[in-house]
Amino acid sequence: MIMGQLSRFWRESEHRYRLMGTRCENCGRVYFPPREVCPTCHRESIGKMKDLELSGEGVIESFTIVHEAPPRFSRQKPYVLALIKTEEGPMITGQIVDCDPSEVEIGKRVHAVFRRMGEDGDTGVIVYGYKFALD
Ligand SMILES: [Zn+2]
To answer: How many angstroms is it from 85 CA to the middle of ligand 1?
Structure first.
C-alpha cells in the first residue's frame, strides 16, 4: 500500500479502527494492547503511560496455516495466522488476508487492515477488527 493512502485511511478512521497502544515514558517500551502500568518499570511508570497509535506496519516473525476453522469462518479456510513484530516493537497475532497462504513468508512486510468480523445477532452491531495484508 502507498503511504499516502495509508495515512489518509488512518486519519479518516474512527478510534475503533486504530491500533492504540501505550508507550512508557520512563523506559520507552511500547505495549499493545494498552497497559496501565509498565511491567518493567512498575511504580516508576505510573502517570507516564501515554497513548500511542501503532502504524500498523510490521514484519512476519512466524506463521501457521490453519486448516481447521470454526463453522462461522468456514468460507475462509485455510487461513494464515501470523505473529507480527510491529515497527514500534509489540508483537501482535493476526490473520493475514488477501493472499494465497503460499505467498506468506517469514520476514515479509505487512500492514494492518480493518475488516468486518461479524454482526452481533441481538443488537445488530457490526464488529470490526484488525487483520494484516502483505505490503
Ligand atoms: Zn517502562
So the answer is: 19
